[in-house]
Design brief:
By secondary structure, the chain is an alpha/beta fold. The protein folds into two domains: 174 residues, Peroxisomal Thiolase, Chain A, domain 1 (3-Layer(aba) Sandwich), CATH 3.40.47; 134 residues, Thiolase/Chalcone synthase (Peroxisomal Thiolase, Chain A, domain 1), CATH 3.40.47.10. The chain contains eleven helices and 13 strands. The protein has a five-stranded mixed β-sheet, with helices on both faces. Helix 3 crosses helix 4 and helix 8 runs parallel beside helix 9. The longest helix has 23 residues. It is globular, with a radius of gyration of 18 Å. Bound molecules: oxa(dethia)-CoA. The site of oxa(dethia)-CoA has 19 residues, from helix 2, helix 6, helix 8 and strand 12.
């Protein structure tokens, strides 16, 4: 209760130009448009160009976010970038975005919480703004996730895509913020379940990048349970309920998970923002991409209460409540 609130001042997203349809992926592995759409809701995914890195996607998104907010890059003093697919082992991809934006000072670093990364990054930036350490934060989720896929594994390669999205937050006094801003978060991990969704390589284990491995149906079951418990935690903390929520902006992994959580939490279907059909699971980028879609098409308006959630490798999961 510092008297400071983080207010979302702008949103933005970027999807690479190249689109891969379900029909095209059916020529790579034994699958079908029908199976993919029925089990996941995904129609297509975007694939980064060979010379496009995660920082390029993130920089495009950042430029759009700042334009949307009318905030100059020089005003930003913090970048928290969630990614599982960094440009390099070091330095942080966020520092490449800092350089590309022409933002001289401040600090930029990465957060790694896979598909929950955006919510972890939001919680991190929000906490740092509230302590007074920084004033204006870009919070970005960006992935070239298709680079860690095993293109012979139909259980995973049909699900994921590349993209970037984010928000810019400014630290405001509660008097100036009014009822707007980030209200609360609940973020959690459980390292004992990592075998169900992980990458089988890394710098200090195999010395390789590795590929995504997932026991999808087991992850599915944990997802609905963990996400629901995180949502209940943010409700308990704020006294708000599903009736108060104007829009539900979930992590876009699978339409069936979105529907399952909405049903369990008694969130009306008309409140669910779904973009999974257009870009598949873009990991840390999926929540801000969905948020930006609904803000820019006018569904989410200033004053609306937004509930967001995610679940991913780690396991990591969380929920967040904010008023736009
Ligand atoms: O964002 C990170 C968190 N990740 C998730 O939230 C993903 C959670 N899991 C899922 O979304 C779903 O479990 C999947 C979409 C991955 C799979 O759907 P499912 O309904 O759980 O299918 P399943 O894994 O139980 O597989 C059912 C069948 C299997 O065949 P048999 O053994 O019944 O003959 C699979 O081999 O579907 C088969 N299958 C496929 N068939 C056609 C698996 N992948 C495919 C495919 N095309 N791409």
């Amino acid at each position: 209760m510092t008297g400071i609130r983080s207010v979302i001042r702008g949103t933005g997203g970027y999807l690479p130009e190249r689109v891969m349809s379900n029909a095209e992926i059916s020529q790579i592995v034994e699958t079908s448009d029908e199976w993919i759409q029925e089990r996941t809701g995904i129609r297509q995914r975007h694939i980064a160009a060979d010379d496009e890195m995660t920082s390029d996607l993130a920089t495009h998104a950042a430029q759009r976010i700042l334009k949307d907010a009318g905030i100059a890059a020089e005003q930003v003093d913090l970048i928290v970038l969630a990614t599982t697919t960094p440009d390099k082992t070091f330095p942080a991809t966020a520092t490449a975005v800092q350089a590309k934006l022409g933002m001289g000072g401040g600090a930029a670093f990465d957060v790694q919480a896979v598909c929950s990364g955006f919510l972890f990054a939001l919680a991190t930036a929000d906490s740092m703004l509230k302590t007074g350490l920084f004033k204006t934060a870009l919070v970005i989720g960006a992935e070239t996730f298709t680079r860690i896929l095993d293109w012979s594994d139909r259980g995973t390669c049909v699900l994921f895509g590349d993209g970037a999205g984010g928000v810019v937050l400014t630290a405001e006094t509660e008097a100036d913020a009014g009822d707007r801003g980030v209200l609360t978060h609940h973020i959690r991990t459980d390292g004992t379940k990592s075998d169900l969704l992980h990458v089988d390589g890394g710098v200090s284990s195999t010395g390789t990048i590795g590929h995504v491995r997932m026991l999808g149906n087991q992850v599915f079951k944990h997802a609905v349970t963990n996400i629901s418990s995180a949502i209940n935690a943010v409700y308990d903390e704020t006294g708000l309920t599903s009736d108060d929520v104007d829009w539900f902006v979930p992590h876009q992994a699978n339409q069936r998970i979105l529907n399952g959580v909405a049903k369990k939490m008694k969130l009306d279907e008309s409140k669910v923002i779904s973009t999974v059909g257009d870009h598949g699971n873009t990991s840390a980028a999926s929540i801000p991409l969905a948020l930006h879609t609904a803000v820019s098409d006018g569904r989410i308006e200033p004053g609306h209460l937004v509930l967001s959630e995610a679940m991913g490798g780690g396991f990591s999961w969380g929920a967040s409540l904010f008023r736009i």
